[in-house]
Design brief:
heterodimer; A: 507 residues; 21 helices; B: 117 residues; Helix Hairpins; 3 helices
Amino acid sequence: MSNSMIVLPIIFQFIAGTILLFFWQRSNIQKVLSILFSMIGLAIGIWLFLLVWENGIMVTQSGGWKAPFGISFVADTFGVTMVMLSSISGLAVSIFSAGSMRKERLDFGFFPIFHFLIMGLQGAFLTGDIFNLYVWFEVVIIASFVLLTLGGKKSQLEGAIKYVSLNLLASTLFLIAIGFIYGLTGSLNMADLAIKLDNVQNRGLVSVTSGIFLVAFGIKSAIFPMYFWLPASYHTPPPAVSAIFAGLLTKLGIYAMLRTFTLLFGGDEFMGDIMVVLAALTILSGGLGALLNQNMGKIFGYLIICHIGFLIAGLGMHNELAIMGTVFYLIHDIIVKTNLFLVSGLILKINGTQDIRELGGMYKNFPLLSLLMAIPLFSLVGIPPLSGFWAKIFLIQAGLETKDYVLIGFIVLGSFLTLWVIVRLWGEVFWKKGEHLPKKANGLYFSQMSKTDQWLMVFPIVLLSGISLYTGFGAENIIILSQRISSELMNPSDYIEAVLGLKTTNP
Amino acid sequence: MEILLIIIIGLLHAGGLYMLLRRSMFKMIIGLILLGNGANLLIFLLGKLVKGKPPVMEDGMKVFADIYADPLPQALVLTAIVIGFGLQSFAIILIKRVYNVLNTDDLDDLNSTDEEI
């Protein structure tokens, strides 16, 4: 078996999307096929993960062009873990949207675009070339534009204007930064860049380039001064779309940041300090924003921002323990954030509104569902032994090591704000008596749906909650995984040797 | 030649940013297009300009004897142009749609999803 199999997840999602295009406007066939494809995609993701776990970093050079001249695809532990997580989120969202999405949206190609989105994400996680990363970013954002505007409601269009314009700006900045890097080194292969950037004499220009990367990825991942598009747009599409955005799109920015700031600009202290400040402000503004809002989609949107802060904090502290905490948090966050928006979608279907002042009585009417929904909500807060707790422990430990006491304060404050938001949500939505729920004429409620559709909506939440519980209770396994990822990220020599073919046995 | 390109790139970026900061949606998209073109020219410039030296080897040669034009930036710019083209046409259609639905070109009127309640 050759190493070129590592591009299988990308090719598979491409074929899946293309096959689905042939069933235009036949949404029932598309539903079945999409769930099937997502399951196979997950199987491929797990297979690739196990393969890389056994064999170490795997590399393939597209077209047989030797690195650094061709485009390399690299499957290291971080990349394949992200591929696996995106497949899990993809499967959950695919099942959920088969149950909940309106027929009008499905008829206009929701599922094909969805698979192309997953393809873009997996391409970004597997590529080893910075310009190729840009191309995958564009694949992801064009798919996300379509998903965001699909349905064409007024609020969706308004949100899309903000989302589209800022993402285009971020892409342009990313492109400018790539131009600078190419001008400085004459290379685009990330492993090659890692060596060449160290030898560049003009350190000032390297720092400026890393700053442009920070801004470009910062807009994509919604960190402090660049996050305003997120709460303005993420609550406007149907919850299934928000779920995949929340789980994976902002995390793609974080992934790119983790890659560039460990491999290319590793150990730049100035950037580390800036990131620590940005992280603190991101946590604060996200948490306060979540407290201020009444719409559940918006609350979760601000919580995304708040927890992006934790991820940036780990990256800013930049030692092995901190990166490990970040990676653990990333694994936990992808699953939980996807689940949260699915939960909000289910609540919307049951009650017809997402305004927490109008909602109420969930616990009385649906005790079992409420207990299920408690799992992602409390995992998010990080009540021990649930998954959020472990990641924060490592981040705080790392902060003690690097003596970033103020940052630790902000992490604790962020956890406290999250707790406050979730407790308020729990009190308002689940415990309060539900009295004046507005009845919409045209909406299809959960109680009116068929049994199959109801199960299609509940099952993904059960699945993701199960994974969350495993992340919490089986934390020792996730810790081993994150340790391996962080040591690979912090000591990139293995990655560089594997890509440039200095050590590989089978090219 | 470099000086001329540098001035053009600077003008494109300055014009793009100025247009982005206007309140009109239409000007915003023009700003994004200008910025995109500026970025493309920047990549082209940073690949070191050489005149009349195509990256093609003469018969019987194994390595380049002389300095040659770098073909990679052209490939990059081409890719970036195509991608930018797709994204910009999407953005233009979106703006047209928004204009039809909301009947306004002023970005300040698009604040219903931002209200904090």
